[in-house]
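Tutorial, part two.
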Amino acid sequence: MRNGYYWIMRSCSDPRRMEQKTDEHSYVTQLSIKRDREVLVMIKIKRVYDHPSKDDGKRILIDRLWPRGLKKEDVQIDEWIKDIAPSNQLRKWFNHDPKKWGEFKNRFFAELQGKREMVEGIINAARKGTVTLLFGSKEERFNNAVALKEYIDAKIHASQQGKAA
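Running the prediction step on this input gives:
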């Protein structure tokens, strides 16, 4: 706690946020919220190929396709929500091209509007404890996990703003 604020994990463009790299591939971002509205939410992203950590909490694979070279029985995941991933058409169009990142997020966010139950499921899980969104891409900055985390963080932030009003 610092200056009467608790730090919760988030990522968006809020000026109160600080992003930090927690290990080789996992990023978490912190947002301060006044003590009377304490909501602890931690959502991390991590490659599914990285070793699990006890700090991962609930591990959710969010790719539509199973990661190459991994056996299902060898991967430690708690849930596989493949339907929250971008559509095959969007995934193929994007192809992890950084030049298409902004448009990819816009299209993906539009798709996520129709997947509210899945998004709420992740948010509810994060309110109970740490959630790690797992992805298979070698591209760590421009992938569906980064976009999904940004979308979820914006949803949480909007709900917090609504409660503050």
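The first helix runs from residue 88 to 94. In part three we will examine how such features are distributed along the chain.
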